[in-house]
Amino acid sequence: MLKKKRRWHCLPGQPITDLDRQVMYWENKGKEVPTRELIKTPEQIEGIRKSGVVNTGVLDEVAKNIHVGMNTLEIDQLCYDYCTAHGAVPACLNYEGFPKSVCTSINEVVCHGIPKEEDVLQEGDIINVDFTTILDGYYADASRMFIIGKTSPEKEQLVRVAKECLEVGAEAAKPYGFVGDIGHAIEKHANKYHYGVVRDLCGHGVGLDFHEEPDVVHFGHRGTGMLLVPGMVFTIEPMINMGTWKVFIDADDPYGWEVITGDDKPSAQWEHTFVMTEHGVEILTH
C-alpha cells in the first residue's frame, strides 16, 4: 500500500518546533493541515498589513463619497484613483476577465457585481463594495456594506446580522482550531434569523496571491476543514441572504461574473483579511 504523502514538512537541519509538533499531531490524526508555504513570515505579514492600509483607505474613500444618485462606475473610478495614487494596483481589474477595479453588488446581487453607468444608487438600496489591493506584490481583500439613505427595517437587520456573522466567525477562529469552526459559528448565528448562508462561494487564503488555500466556508461543522495555524492569512466573508442560500449567475451578464440570490431577495456581506496568531485572529484590513 502506498503511504499517503505528507503535506507538512519540518525544515531540514532545523529543530522541531512546538508548531511542527501541533501540526504533525493533527496530520497523524487524519486532519487536513496546511503546507508550510501557507505560513507567512513576519516580513510577508508586514507587507500584507501595508497593503491592507491602502485597501482600508479605498473603502474609507467610498464611505465619504457614496450617495443617492451616484452610479457604480463612479465608485469604480474613485477606487481606482485612490489605489493607484497610493502606489498600489487593483487586483480585480482584468482578473480572469473581470472588467473593472471593484465589485459593486446591489440588493439581490450577492457578489461580483460589475460597475456600470446605468446602475444608479437609489434611496433604500444596500450595496456591497468589495476591493482587493496589490501593494509591492502583497494582497489584501475586504468589503463593506453601505445603506443608501434610509432603507427598510428588514434590510437594516440583514446588513447588521451579516456584520455580526463576520464577527462571530472571526471569534470562532482559534489557533489549532479548524476552518469548520468558523462556518459553524456563522451558520448558527444566521439561522437565528432564518437567513440563508451562501454555500457556493467562500473565503480564502490570501497574501502572496489573490486566492490561496484554504477555502473558508461559512457553514458546516466544528472540527472539519483545514487546521488553522499561526501565520496563516485568510479572508472571512460570509454572504448572508434574506431568503434562500441558493444563488445563480446572471444570464444577462456578458462576463459571467454577477451572482444573484435564487429568490431575488436581498443579500449582504462583510469581509476582512485576517492573520492567525498564537492568540486568535488579527484584522489586517481595518
Structural class of the helix and strand makeup?
Answer: alpha+beta
User: How many β-strand stretches?
Assistant: 15
The level of helicity is 25-40%
What order do the helices and strands follow?
A: HHHEEEEEHHEEEEEEEEEE
Number of helices: 5
Mean pLDDT: 97
Number of domains: 1
Taking the alpha carbons of the first and last residues, their distance comes to: 50 Å
CATH architecture: Alpha-Beta Complex
Keywords: Aminopeptidase, Hydrolase, Metal-binding, Protease
Binding site for a divalent metal cation 2: 141, 204, 237, 271
EC number: 3.4.11.18
Binding site for a divalent metal cation 1: 130, 141, 271
Describe this structure in words.
This protein is α+β, with helices and mostly antiparallel strands. It has a single domain, classed as Creatinase/methionine aminopeptidase superfamily (Creatine Amidinohydrolase, Alpha-Beta Complex). The protein is 29% helix and 23% strand. The chain has five helices and 15 strands. Strands 1, 2, 4 and 5 form a four-stranded antiparallel beta sheet that branches. A three-stranded antiparallel beta sheet has the order 3-12-11, with no helix packed on it. Strands 6-10-13 form a three-stranded antiparallel beta sheet, with helices on one face. Strand 7 (203-205) and strand 8 form a beta hairpin. 47% of the residues are buried. The model has no long low-confidence stretch (mean pLDDT 97).
